Amino acid sequence: MSVTVDTRALRDRAAAVLHGNDAGSWTKASPHLYPHQWSWDSAFIAIGWAHLDVRRAMMELEQLFTAQWTTGMVPHIVFRAGPDQPYFPGPEWWDCASVPAAAGLPVRTTGICQPPVHALALQRIWQLTPRALRPEIRARIRALYPKVVKWHRYLATGRDPEGSGLVTAYHPWEGTDNSPRWDRALARIEVAKPGPYTRLDTATLGDPSQRPTNWDYDRYLWLVSLLRKYRYDDAEIHRHYPFQIKDVFFSAILVAANAALLDLADTAGASDGDREQLARWLDRGRQGLATRFDTQTGLCVDYDVQAGEQIGLRTFAGFAPLFAQTTDAAQQAAQLRQLDSADFCGNPDFRWPLLPSTSPAEPAFEPHNYWRGPVWPIINWLLWHSLSLLGYVARADEIRRDSLGQIAAAGEFAEYFEPFTGKELGSPQQSWTAAVTLDWSES
Ligand code: 2M8
Fold this sequence. Notes:
Structural class: mainly alpha
Bound molecules: (2R)-3-hydroxy-2-(alpha-D-mannopyranosyloxy)propanoic acid
Radius of gyration: 20 Å
Number of helices: 18
Strand content: 5-15%
Oligomer: single chain
Largest sheet: 4 strands, antiparallel
Order of helices and strands: HEHHEHEHHEHHHHEHHHEEEEHHHHEEH
């Protein structure tokens, strides 16, 4: 389906959402549901800001990295909103201030992380920097770059002690909360007694059916209590902790992010050592993903380390080779066939031929429930970005056009969209949706 989109008007409205969520030096992920600074949201948000003000875009990332742990980890939430903007679970559930790696931080944070989109943001900022501002922005990139390398080093070592090229995720909150990818691993947790708690998300949103269940939340919070017990120590976690998943999507973003850092190496004045290291991580990541590629289905599959089993569900994460910009022609062809099959974008009943978070062919598919089916603009942005870089320019442009059409038709910068109707779901005025709209409007 195609509609005529007034791109200029959409762009102005997207800019207004970012301005509305701007807290000065950082941006709320959304005005009510997510009032703090989230890690990968911030990266997308910086891409949006880069179209309005590259200095402000740099500041978004610089602020986020002030919360970087001494291990190199960039925490998934930096708690910055005041007490008038409650969020659950807050810093007390995480209790990170007493952890040595986070003890000296000026802000309170969580103890887990999210996909490293930040290098892609840095790359976009530099591409959009006007000539007159280049000396200043180059200097700021030079200052931030080693911190981003350190972040990638944490993921390549602390999160991959086996040197497999695949990142081990510790928690559903490390990106795609209630994705059915985690269902079996969560179901194996026999006793989940996180203690009394009151959720705020379902009340804020008003429709619990668009959010994870209480069964999920019991387990999310129980896992936090275990991480707390292990003092967020990676070695302890790898030894004892029940939820450890080699996450192909997270790993693919690390590959793409390492490629982006290499692309910026001259601008940032990277050392030879850093360049060699980044190239090794990039290569190892691609090899790791190749070991998880299923030639039968044409999709990549996650691996549950504790259970020793594959997670063969059809979700957006199966396109990890595309997200990692694989150079393997056979993989590219197989992935593109899957992408446009009825199991994904080619579903004849979809309002827009966009990538859903979970395939409608999966029994766990729920079209209105969060990461279990809806279309997420940021995921489609990552796909568009990769396809463009791989040279599939026409297919990429269709994704861009249909994504803008979806957002314009719904009339809201929603967190996610129902795939059959295109209806807006989740939080309105979601910053990262506005940010990718800005990027798409200008591309
Ligand atoms: C969602 O996650 C938070 C917890 O981190 C939540 O549900 O409360 C996820 O979509 C996550 O990927 C995203 O970063 C966050 C803020 O947009 O919301």
